[in-house]
From TrEMBL:
This is proteasome endopeptidase complex. Keywords: Cytoplasm, Hydrolase, Protease, Proteasome, Threonine protease. Its EC number is 3.4.25.1. It is an enzyme of class 3 (hydrolase). It catalyses: Cleavage of peptide bonds with very broad specificity. One of its GO terms (molecular function) is threonine-type endopeptidase activity. The active site is at T41. One of its GO terms (biological process) is proteolysis involved in protein catabolic process. One of its GO terms (cellular component) is proteasome core complex, beta-subunit complex. The keyword Protease applies.
Amino acid sequence: MNYFKEVEGLPVSLISERVKFTPAAGAVNASPTVQDTKTGTTTVGIIGKDCVVLAADQRAVMGHIADKGVVKVYPLTDYVGVTIAGTVGDSLALIRFLRAQANLYEIERETKITPNALASLLSNVLNNNRYYPFIFQPILGGMNSAPELFEITPYGGIMKKDDYAITGSGTTFAMTTLDQDYKKDLSEIDAIALAVKAVSAAKNRDIYSGGESVTVIVFDKNGHRTINRKEIDKVISKIKFN
């Protein structure tokens, strides 16, 4: 079976044969007495001049604060990554699935999968499970011939962005910062600084966003790199909030 017979519009029937997930506790039809760890969350994606920056806070909650150092930004390939907002179980299951399918695509086609193709695949999977949904709202971005960024809803709605994307409980606070400070063709350094500032603004005001620092991964024509804690702390030290 050729799973990727149509890269940009993958048949839902093929997806159903491969993907048989069950919803995490906390989903619509799950027992109300069982809780899954949720990421609370503010996640941000920014398109720079020659890069995509993905960033997120580091708090996870389960009634109380469950963890202050959670990773919510993951590379799917060398050139494509995703942020997670929602339940941890659903998010990680879908990340494993996307990584496996990206590897399969590369083996079958002998070429790298594009951000657009991975976004289409994820959109189809989420829509196919809309009556028993994954608690998962990602931002997916990366490099093709140019930077690409997508915001995807839990029911499979997909929006291609040409500037920035935001998900999570801290969206309102991060959006204010991005609306004020975003400019076209940001350098990588400026895009990183703006992503950190936006997430930090949400951490400052949103009770469900927090953690010890901010996770940032940059994707460009050379691949991806995770920004180290020292660089992040340097950026945070220069931020002033009213």
